[in-house]
Amino acid sequence: MALVNYLALEQPLIERLKEEVAHVNGHVFSVKDLAGVRQKAQRVPAIHVVYDGDDVLTGKHDRAGHGARMTTAETEYRSKQRVRQRWLVVTVVRNAAGELETGEAVRQSAGLIIQRTIEVLQGWQPLTRHKPFIRQPGPKPAYIDTFAYFPLLFTSEVMTP
Asked: What is the pLDDT averaged over residues 11-26?
């Protein structure tokens, strides 16, 4: 069975987060949903799901590239590539005007969402073609105006034709 949609993980990710992370009231968005939304008009708290590229784990750098003789099975395997897809899951919260100094309320809100996100995604396997999600080191949080963005990075491996 061939891989039909390279980005097939996006929709299951969004649906799982909508169902399992109550603190965001269903506000889970893809990049497509955010196109054209001005920062101050975005709904918060929310989670944004963003494809962050991939890492090719097999292919031209396999054994054959080092002068080793390949078996028939290895030759067939090399016609495919094992790829690790990276998915950012970004928690977005907003500081109330009076909270700008300490940020305590925003960290409390974000902390609950982040914890639940890790619980529902770590080790979850939404599609049989993909390996379960593994959390990886991700980008640092960003603070823009009164908004705070807390990215988590999850990866899943898949074989591509």
From this structure: 94
